[in-house]
Write a structure and sequence with these properties.
The complex is a heterodimer. Chain A is α/β, with parallel strands linked by helices. Helix content of chain A is about 40%, strand content about 25%. Chain A has two domains: about 160 residues, P-loop containing nucleotide triphosphate hydrolases (Rossmann fold, 3-Layer(aba) Sandwich); about 70 residues. Chain A has a six-stranded mixed sheet with strand order 6-7-8-3-9-10, with helices on both faces. In chain A, α3 runs parallel beside α5 and α4 crosses α5. The longest helix of chain A has 16 residues. Chain A is globular and about 50 Å long. The mean pLDDT of chain A is about 90. By secondary structure, chain B is mainly alpha-helical. In chain B, strands 1-2 form a two-stranded antiparallel ribbon. The mean pLDDT of chain B is about 90. Classes of the chains: A alpha/beta, B mainly alpha.
């Protein structure tokens, strides 16, 4: 069953073609990695999916409903949200309040508080629930981002570099978490620079370069695709294998 | 528990205080206006503090309230109590009209746009002579004193009405702050894009806030009209003595907190009166100058408002009580 269907998405910023004719579809419950060099358009693509950026052309269907031209809050209500790469927490609020606020999309304040604590527990941050979000370390803040997005009760969750700056143990925890979210029926799109992590957890990988979809396949197919290797992965990919 | 005792004690003191002042005297008037301006600043605090939208146009709603109830008494003999709700309704519509185009603006741009809106209302009230009486102003007609007609011989009932209004708007402010809407407003204030992405309809929440604030401000305009008895466009639609003053009271007291506007009003209104009293006979402009210097000094001393003084006093008090 297709949960997310993207057809011919293009977006131009002045002279820069940020996205050009991106087409793919994702069945429910897949973990899809999105990779590509810096400036390939990964974050722009996520922003377009959730409605922060309007595409010039193309269609996006979430579980059968068109979301192009919808505002982000509407897209979130329909079941798709994202984390922010550069971390966009409510810094003056507590960690709990950050996550609780997302829970208000589907619950009243008291239920949202319980849900928020469950989400914080899942990312391993229950112990810092009452700290100010702005006082956390960067990797912790990225995990609060994840908990907050999770608390909206998404069908499709877009994770933009939530593993940045994590140590190997923490990274393993997040990878386990991503798998358990998939087991809960959530479909995940993951942007990550850490190749080994992405090759391990993803069922499938999309490669974006200059806003264009370069490859789409299993981690093995993508890793062995000469076009991908030439355009982006190069020798560093060999080193990781 | 301790909190509630403190709140009840404060209300009890405020309820007894008017009885201690001479019912026909000067200070009961100062107290009434202090309570009224505290309420106005609290209403401003809903949009200025919770949504972080620094409105400098709240005189628009205030004046609409004052004019609506007074015109309804003058032309149709309708009780100001009913006029107050009619004014609130019109204030809400005005708030909606101003909020739609200004909502996307932030910071100084929002402040300037709302300031302009307040000024437009002042000009309209001055020009639309057939309805408002123009620059001459309006007098609230004298009717035999009764609660139903909102008419009293003395200022004492007005002081109590202002006190009740302050208590009501403070509870409304606090209720919003703790509700889902309060969480959403804090999210919008800190990161509007992230707020949208996690499912907050930022447009709707901002509009709701603006309308609530506009309705309540207009209703307080009726209270003012009934106390002042006479007013003109330049008083009730004044940028300096209404719009900027209520913002100043809330900011000086502690923006975004329930106690801030009350502390701010308790300081600003009496000090302003005192300055006028002391210096107006000598040099007319001097009181404003000295008042301005005091404000600058206070803001330099406590940039986050009197609430910080209050908080540290409370902390010291509870530490002592514990040891």
């Amino acid at each position: 069953m297709t949960i997310l269907d993207v057809r011919g998405i293009s977006r131009r910023f002045g002279g820069l073609q940020a996205l050009s004719d991106v087409t793919f579809s994702v069945p429910k419950g897949q973990i899809v990695g999105l990779i590509g060099p810096n400036g390939a358009g990964k974050t722009t693509f996520f922003s377009t999916l959730v409605g922060l950026i309007r595409p010039d052309s193309g269609s996006i269907q979430l579980d059968g409903t068109s979301v192009v031209g919808q505002k982000p809050h509407k897209v979130a209500a329909l079941g798709m949200t994202k984390t922010f790469q550069n971390v966009a927490l409510f810094a003056e609020s507590s960690v709990l309040d950050n996550v609780l606020t997302a829970g208000l999309l589907r619950h009243d304040v008291e239920t949202a508080r319980r849900e928020a604590l469950i989400c914080l527990d899942r990312v391993g941050l229950k112990s810092v629930a009452h700290k100010l979000a702005g006082n956390l370390s960067f990797p912790e803040r990225a995990r609060v981002e994840l908990a907050r997005a999770l608390c909206t009760g998404p069908k499709v969750l877009l994770l933009d570099e939530v593993m940045a700056a994590l140590n190997p143990v923490e990274m393993q925890e997040i990878m386990d978490l991503i798998r358990s979210l998939r087991d809960d029926g959530i479909t995940l799109l993951v942007v990550e620079h850490h190749m080994r992590a992405i090759m391990t957890i993803c069922d499938r990988i999309l490669v974006l370069n200059f806003g264009r979809l370069l490859a789409d396949g299993t981690p093995e197919q993508v890793a062995n695709d000469p076009v991908v290797v030439e355009a982006y992965l190069g020798r560093s990919m060999e080193a990781h294998k | 528990m301790k909190r509630w005792i403190a709140i009840l004690a404060a209300i009890a003191i405020a309820a007894v205080l008017p009885l201690l002042l001479s019912p026909t005297g000067y200070w009961i008037r100062v107290l009434t206006f202090t309570l009224l301006f505290a309420a106005m600043a609290q209403v401003w605090n809903i949009i200025g503090g919770l949504a972080n939208q620094t409105s400098l146009g709240h005189a628009a709603f205030f004046g609409i309230g004052a004019y609506t109830s007074t015109i309804l008494v003058l032309k149709f003999g309708i009780s100001p109590w009913i006029g107050m709700f009619a004014g609130g309704f019109l204030g809400g519509i005005a708030a909606l009209i101003i909020a739609v185009p200004t909502m996307r603006l932030q910071g100084h741009y929002f402040a300037l746009a709302t300031l302009a809106f307040g000024e437009v209302m002042r000009v309209i009230a001055n020009v639309w002579t057939s309805l408002t009486g123009g620059p001459v102003g309006l007098s609230v007609p004298f009717v035999p004193p009764s609660i139903a007609a909102y008419s009293f011989k003395q200022l004492l009932p007005h002081a109590y009405i202002a006190l009740i209004a302050l208590i009501i708007v403070t509870f409304i402010f606090e209720a919003i702050r703790r509700s889902a809407m309060g969480y959403r407003l804090r999210a919008i204030k800190e990161n509007p894009a992230a707020a949208e992405v996690i499912g907050i309809d930022t447009t709707k929440v901002k509009l709701q806030t603006a309308v609530i604030s506009g309705v309540l401000m207009a209703m307080l305009g009726t209270l003012y009209a009934q106390v002042a008895v006479f007013f003109d466009p330049d008083t009730v639609f004044s940028a300096a003595s209404i719009s900027i003053r209520v913002a100043l009271i809330a900011i000086l007291g502690g923006v975004g907190t329930a106690i801030g506007p009350i502390l701010g009003a308790l300081f600003i209104i009496p000090v302003e009166e005192l300055m006028n009293d002391l210096f107006s006979s000598g040099a007319a402009g001097l009181s404003q100058l000295i008042f301005g210097v005091i404000l600058i000094a206070v803001i330099l001393w406590r940039p986050r408002g009197f609430i910080t003084v209050f908080d540290s006093l409370m902390a010291r008090f509870s530490n002592k009580a514990r040891s």
